[in-house]
Structure formats: structure tokens, C-alpha cells
Amino acid sequence: MTPQARPVRLGPRSLTALALVSAVGVAAFGWPFLAPPSSQIGAHAQDAPWLFAGLLVLLVAVVAATIAESGLGPKAVAMLGVLAATGAALRPLGAGTAGIEPMFFLMVLSGRVLGPGFGFTLGSLTMFASALLTGGVGPWMPFQMLAMGWFTMGAGLLPGPDRLRGRGELALLAGYGFLAAFAYGTVMNLAGWPFMGSLASGIAFDPHAAVPANLARFLAYCAATSLGWDLGRAVVTVALTLTLGPAVLRALRRATRRAAFETAVTFAPR
Q: In this predicted structure, what is the pLDDT of residue 265?
């Protein structure tokens, strides 16, 4: 079987930039568990998410620019724009309805076909565009951009991109979408949890508590606030992947073949 063409081939600079932003992202999401109770960061628990939000905006922009510099040509830019616009348009369809978020299945399938580099850029851009479309711009937006970039990039890293097809591939993508939907909800909970303060003292982040106590509080917070939503998102992602997945995968692969991303554009002499 002919290897699937990729619109973006990650080079050393792109990989370094991705590793950097991912490391900072882990710190941005997980700082409540990384900082010891005796550290001074506890005194700035309400400020830390804002600091990380500003930092992540810059870093995600750097990664997107680095990936683009690695070979995001005009054909890939056109496909990126179409898919990001489609994903941004799908997201409001589930606004206010627990778990009905059809954009997630499109991100999984797009990352699978177009690869991890394109997937990270697509996931981040889609979240940015949907935030502008729905007015959901706030300190949570950079966290959403990074988390969706990870989510879509992960689909591009799944095994067998050039060999696995049919029911086996659909099962793999559905399983990934189910688990990743919960993972996305969990990391986004980490972004909002420190903001709670005294709103819910039993499950809020306590900067003076030990890690096991805060972990118990966080799990209780997830169960109380987002478990139902995450389950709905996971089920909808699986259902759409299994029903619409074959047609969408064929369409994406056909468009990729016709675009011939890895073929250099030449002009015939007059």
C-alpha cells in the first residue's frame, strides 16, 4: 500500500518547539500538583492560570509558526482553513447540550489522515476560531487550544497509518476518541479548578494541602462537575466515528491524494 502523504513533515525544529510547548503545558495544567505546599506559588493560586494563559498563547503561536515554516504549503493551508472552519462551525451545535460535541470526531479523523504536525496546528486553530465564533474568549482559551492540539496530534500518532484500514481502523479511532474525550475534559478541569477558591471548599484546590489531599479533591471535582459531560462527548465521538467515519476518512484521503502535498509545484516554460 502506498504510504499516506503528509501535508507537514515534522523536522528537528518543529519537534523541539512541540516538546517545549508540551513541557510548559504540562506545568501550566499540573502546577497544583507540582508545587509543594511550602512554596510561594500558593500565595498566587489565583494569578497562576492567568500567567500560564498568556505564556501558552505565545508558545502555541511559536509552534504553529515553526510547523508552517517546516513546509505548510498553499495546498495544506487551504485544507487547514477548510477543516478548521468546519470544526469551528460544528462546535456551537452542542452548546448547552451535555456531550454533543461533533467537532471531536472530525479532529480525530483529520489527525489520523493528515498526521501529527498538521493535527496539532489544526486542533489549536480550530479552538481559536471557535472561541472567536462563539465569544468564548478568556483565560481558558489557550488551555483549550493546547489540549485540542494534543488531542488531534495524538490521533496522528496512532499505529498503522499506512496499513490499517476498515473495521480495525474504525475500532482503533473510536477507542482513541473515547479515551481522549475523557482526557481532554480532565486536563481542562485542571485549568479551571484552581479558580474555584472558596466557591466549593470541599473540592476546591487548597494550596496548603498535600498532593494526595488535593488529588482527592480534584477527582471529586471532576465527578461533580464534568463526568456526565465527558461521557456524553465520548459516546458521541464513538457513535459518529463508527457511522460517519468511513465516508469522512475516504473523503480526507481522496483530498490528500489529489492535493499531492509532497509533490513540488513547478511551472512549465513558455
A: 47
